[in-house]
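Hello,

Following up on my earlier ticket. Below are the three sequence lines again, exactly as submitted.
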Amino acid sequence: MARPLLGWAIFAVAMLLLPQFVSNGTLRIIIFANFLAIFAMSWDFISGKTGYISFGHPFLIGIGAYTSAILSYRFGMPVSLSIPLAVLATMVGGTLFFLPALRIKGTYFALVTLAFMELMYQLVQVIRPDLTGGTRGISGIKTILSGAAPNFYLSFGLMFAIGLALWLLSRTRLGTALDAISMNEEAVSGSGLNTTRLKLFAFMVSALVAGLGGAFYVHYLGSIAPRALFDINFVFTIIVSVLIGGSATIIGPIMGAFFMTFLLEYLRPLLPGSERYLVYGMIALVLYVYQPKGIMQILKNLSLRTRGPQTGRSGNV
Amino acid sequence: MKTSAVKTGLAALTLSLSMSMSTLAFAADTVKIGFIGSFASDAGRSTLRGAEIAVEELNSAGGVLGGKTIELVKADTGEDVTEGIKAYEYLAETEEVEFIVSGDVDDVSLGWLPRMVEYKIPTLDTWTSSITIIDKIVEDYDSYKMYFMNVASDEALATLYVDFGKDILAGKMGWKKTVILQEDTAFGGAINGLVTGLLAPEAGIEVVDTIVYDPATVDFSPIFSRAVESGADFIYIISSVNSQVVSSQYVKQQVPLAMTGVNVAALGQEYWEDTGGSGGGISTLSPVPSVGFSLDPVSQAFADKYVAKYGSERPKYPHFNGFNAYFGVKQAFAAAEEAGGFGLDKWVPAMENQDLILEKDGELWMRYGFWKPGETEERTGRTYPHNLRFDITPPYDDGAPSMVVVQWYEDGSSKVVYPPKYANGEFQVPSWVKK
Amino acid sequence: MLQVLIQGFLLSGLYALIAVGFTLIFSVGRVLNLAYGAYLMLGGYAYFYSVQTLGMPKLPGFLFATGMGALAGVLMYRLLVKRLKGDQVAVEISTLILAVVIQAGVVLVFNDSSKILHPIVGGVWRIGSTTITNNILVAMVASWIILGGLLLFVKKTHVGRAMQAVSMDAKGARISGINTDRVNMMTWAISGALGSVAGVFFASYTQLNPSMWVAPLIIAVAVVIVGGIGSIVGTLIVAHIIGFMEIITTTFIAAELRGVFTMLLIIGVLVIRPQGLFGRGDL
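Thanks for your patience. The regenerated structure is below:
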């Protein structure tokens, strides 16, 4: 327990010192990486932990983002009130998400969540465009802070708190039980645990994180549009971040999110146009097919290899 | 296909590496400006190339602001809202540009707008006509004053359409009833609201039915059936996202009603090629200079230069926003010369006073100027601060024409059919429609 | 009423054609190919490029598109699916990534503005206020012929019966001496070819653009979910349910709610009857 905690502490200190060393442009990139990391951790808590793959995670993020945006922009509610309400709304949305999980899993669950996202995309445009801003969305939403460094601290603080909380949670017996669901749900329920309640718990935690992330995100961006959220490319980025990093590891999704965000941003000066997305996608694909367990596993293999030749075989893929 | 893509990627890589090397050489005495938009869309490329030509001309004429060279940095949005925000941040924080020209679509511009307010970088939009942005300048001038839009906004578009309805559709064709087909987008909703309110009282055309449809509609035949059954004399279409589908199905199904309105797909010269020639008979409102628009000598010179430089790669001919970017970048620098740079206190008033009048055969043909804050446009009775100064009252000799109506004929040619001052063709119904 | 019937049958025919290749992979390979929509895109663009850009006659262009689809199917199987042996989730995720990559590739090669295909067969005729293009009529007839042919192929030929065997019980099929790898590859090739053919018709109906893979994928997913792991006949029936629902919504309720009902149907069926209306049948 002590060593990983030390790791978290070093991580926090290093990140907090970062604004002294890097440019504002880089901080802006990290802010996006922080938010992506939050979304990735939220996804990972349902999908990585319990094995219920969600293809519609923007549905949850979108509820959080839209609720807070509408409450603060249309009704002048202070952010300190609109964000908690948005989180609550997201958790209600999370129960909706949860209902199908009572009966279906695997592929079918993935598809129903995808349908949820598509439905949301269509509804946001059709129902009450006077509130949602329809296809053009809302611009000029109140931002909490301005400037690169303050927003960096805020987004990092949020991401770090969520990460640490999830990590601590995953070390409890509850966390272990959740992990077991992804291995063998029947065995877990056979051992006398209430899997439905466990799953509901995982969904609520995931929705809570998604809602928090979505609400803070929209108050960072200052604008929201359906096309930016309920989009298969957004799903793609979230899922790939987790998988590239290493799912069900907390730190993996964080690393994956940073990797994906920086990869795309560092390609910008080299490949300014659409080649960028092509290369970005191909790297993600090759990495995923080469090592579906992600960067975490690659690092593990590397450290095994450097530590002793007798275990080196596992690194020799 | 994969290998060729990789090759292009590699080529682009070496190219951009060598380009970034060469820009390092004269980094000292430069003014950096940014382009934001999609590198792969016709709209984005038109703006980018218009800006490139303007920069080239300014640089070869001895530079700006006391002999400095302009360096244009570009950031791709891929027409994605979030990427647009990142691109704006990149231009502002990493490249630290002093001025940004945009070729973005509505929601992308609205997406980065809060960033503009934060960074206070003078920004010129050349494609979106979203009145929402102009409204923000009306409400909060100090926060948004660095924004300019040199396309006439939604309101101007709707008003011209009502005039077209009165003069041509009702006056000349004798049509009394219309059915509105509106794509379910915010733009569609805005235009529909404006037009529906004005058509009956001003043009004497009754709206007998309104059909709002999903932009992802696969099959328009039930929608066209409903339109035909409504008993209308013509279809008024409002479509900006998936215009090709509705117009090509209209042509393929030979719907026996004339269809006119707003059809964004038909705005570019590539329309004919993209529809494989099955787009005849379609007419649409277009910002100026549209396809088929006769150009004044200055704009013509720009168009010729564009074709010579980029004519092998689409868009082979600039869309309206290419012209807007060309003239807009020049005006932004003219304002900067007067203000001694891009500092907002001096640059904004200087930009507000820019007024470029382009004449053809001795009369005012196009005008690039802006409405000033507080200045009321008489016809619509409202203000349009920092929107292109347009003229919607005949004889159109005050501002730029707000819009024109262009028609694609079945032989693949396109002409302006309204307003009369700019018309060089006649409004026609497609051959399969019984008159 | 007659109009709704006609339009319903025409649209449903197209939807059946779109869904059948997807169903095939789902039944035989037991995986969802989320890059299925990319076959339609490849087919459409291949046809556009060969016929409208290079000026080839329509038939060779059509065959070229079909071949491209089959090739894409084989490559997908060889390079992705086989490596990830049997891991359904991994296949779904990697095909999703692949679809995004292909989309970026199409933007790179063809630019992201929409393009229109000529009708494959020109001409129209009218019944009342309903217009029927020969193009969509041909699409519907082709769809019926292809579905019928596929049914015969599966029931009557050796390869088809092997596919059926794999679809019912892959392990059992392997034990009884069927080369499941080859059968799988054949299935992926056929699915790719079917997807491409559907793509040419779909594009000639709507348009070509780099994000066009999403809409047909959703149609295919809807058909598979509502129908259950699919028999070919089941696919045909469900395509008609969805097609007719869409036409009825557009004609009588509100055209902008077209997609909403399809999504509600998917969610409803998945929650109430996850195995689909027709359950789990063989091919």
